[in-house]
Amino acid sequence: MLHVTAETVTYETLDDGRIARIWLNRPESHNAQHRTLLVALDEAFARAEADDEVRVVILAARGKNFSAGHDLGSEEALTERRPGPGQHPTFTTHGGTRTGVVEKTYLQEWHFYFENTRRWRDLRKITIASVQGNVISAGLMLMWACDLIVAADNARFSDVVGVRLGMPGVEYYAHPWEFGPRKAKELLLTGDSIDADEAHRLGMVSKVFPLDRLEEDTLAFARRIAQRPTMAALLIKDSVNAATDAMGFDEALRHGFHIHQLGHAHWAATNDNRFPVALPPDVEDWRTAGPTETARRDRP
How much is the pTM? Predict the structure, then answer.
């Protein structure tokens, strides 16, 4: 077994190198995603892709929750966003000179959130997301980029940025494809969550495993797939991805990203050209306590 540890991501190979497992490694922050984590994750995926021995990549997470989404409030995340001298571009308009917050946000989100996720979706390996606990907003993006999703029986899935922050959803807008159109509208309009069983019924999750067997059963599932001929597996992946792209998936993602940026621009225009650096208090509490506290499915 090869085992390499970074501050935010752990990479290991199993079964004589046929399976690579990448761990999100910020359990104390519920694996919230700051830029350092996303860069490390991209490097880990690239490492697995370049290794000819690897046939299947598992994306998993340390701690009780798979991911609480974008990190909007930790000191590390705030430091990454805090500009140094001369780092805020300025633009001259009919209203005078202003700081280019919207433009800067657009470019950074295109790189860190949109392009990264699309590249991981097309990785030249078969990928499996293994999730537990809360999978919130940008946590969905990491999971949806994978070919297959397996979930612990305590997993819950939601995107709160719509109803809570006035956005249409996260940057990688796969909601209608993963939830179905009407379920996507319901979840985004209410901020509610779904559990692992409902996600399985919708077809978003392939397998539901007991929490205490998630790691073991995911590995067994990955071993079955790793036995398939590599070229055949990649042809299957490419064929299915091409079919969804022919149905408009890729173009819908691009449109959804631009609508997301329009939401940012609206926020900036109505809040002195500033973006929030933290979620509202009730959302912060929810991200810690879990969706059943404030976003129950049976809530009116």
Answer: 0.80
